[in-house]
């Protein structure tokens, strides 16, 4: 589940209720035993730094008594613990054909390109100067 609008953050609530708590309550009321955690997709091979709330549940009436373990990362930002380093956009597109006849893309609009040119490999919008966040990301920056 995308951590959109700070789903995992108690400071953001629906009325007096924390959004994630509301979702968990509904799932539990439907008969599920749950565990949840906030994961960074980059730690699992995605070529972007993106947090995701992962909710794992099993039916309360199932025969399984084992607790669902935490997910084990497959990548590390610095390549520690014998894991490969986080993937970059360049890694993700490295196998895309380079001949023009095989490429299908839309050009990046100049107003977006200026933000991309400020970033180094592996960086994302939060690495832009804070005064540009709102302009670069619009409503997604809040």
From TrEMBL:
Catalytic reaction annotation: a 2'-deoxycytidine in DNA + S-adenosyl-L-methionine = a 5-methyl-2'-deoxycytidine in DNA + S-adenosyl-L-homocysteine + H(+)
One function term, GO molecular function aspect: DNA (cytosine-5-)-methyltransferase activity
Alphabetical UniProt keywords: Methyltransferase, Restriction system, Transferase
Keyword Nucleotidyltransferase: no
Domain of life from the UniProt record: Bacteria
One GO term of the biological process aspect: DNA restriction-modification system
Protein name: DNA cytosine methyltransferase
């Amino acid at each position: 589940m995308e951590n959109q609008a700070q789903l995992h953050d108690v400071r953001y609530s629906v009325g007096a209720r924390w959004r994630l708590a509301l979702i968990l309550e509904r799932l539990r009321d439907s008969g599920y035993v749950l565990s949840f955690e906030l994961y960074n997709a980059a730690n699992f091979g995605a070529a972007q730094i993106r947090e995701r709330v992962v909710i794992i549940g099993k039916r309360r009436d199932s025969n399984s008594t084992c607790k669902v373990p935490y997910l084990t990362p497959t990548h590390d930002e610095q390549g520690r613990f014998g894991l490969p380093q986080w993937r970059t956009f360049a890694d993700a597109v490295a196998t895309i054909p380079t001949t023009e006849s095989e490429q299908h893309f839309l050009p990046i609009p100049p107003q977006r390109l200026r933000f991309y040119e400020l970033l180094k490999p592996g960086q994302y919008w939060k690495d832009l100067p804070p005064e540009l966040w709102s302009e670069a990301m619009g409503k997604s920056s809040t």
